[in-house]
Write a structure and sequence with these properties.
- This protein is an alpha+beta fold and about 150 residues long.
- The chain has 3 helices and 4 strands; from the N terminus they run H-E-H-E-E-E-H.
């Protein structure tokens, strides 16, 4: 794997983790949204992440490195899916969206889960920044050696 490929992989990881953090923020912002355009409460969104390639065997990786062919494409967001867990039901008789018994369906967003996911995405983002910085400094050192 060459150093420019390492930069590409780290930058794709940064993009995916930023997207993940934005989705967590959107979920948290809509934690009280009881009615969306389709008439239901807001439904929590999650992303599906791919490694950017087919399943690669260890032998393929080693052969790719010997032939100096890029093997890894980095991470990619494949899809945004809706969490299908049930909505929360709370008793708020004065709420405009309350049913005849006074219960309101609330979004299926759990703030603790969202904050944990946000923290995980932040740590992964920081790890990608560290890897990117290391690869960048190695490229700079290699260029200095070539002088």
């Amino acid at each position: 794997m060459d150093l420019l490929n390492a930069l590409d992989i780290s930058s794709s990881g940064l993009i995916v983790q930023r997207f993940r953090m934005n989705l967590c923020a959107e979920n948290l912002a809509n934690i009280e949204t009881t009615r969306t355009a389709n008439g239901e409460p807001y439904r929590r969104k999650q992303i599906v992440i791919s490694d950017g390639g087919d399943q690669i065997s260890f032998q393929d990786v080693m052969m790719g490195m010997q032939n100096s062919m890029p093997v890894f494409d980095g991470a990619k967001v494949i899809d945004v899916v809706y969490d299908q867990t049930n909505f929360r039901s709370i008793h708020k008789p004065g709420h405009p969206d309350a049913d005849k018994n006074g219960y309101v369906l609330m979004p299926n967003v759990n703030p603790i889960v969202e904050m944990a996911d946000m923290l995980s995405a932040t740590r992964a983002y920081e790890a990608n920044i560290t890897a990117f910085s290391s690869a960048k400094s190695m490229v700079a050192k290699a260029l200095e050696l070539g002088k």
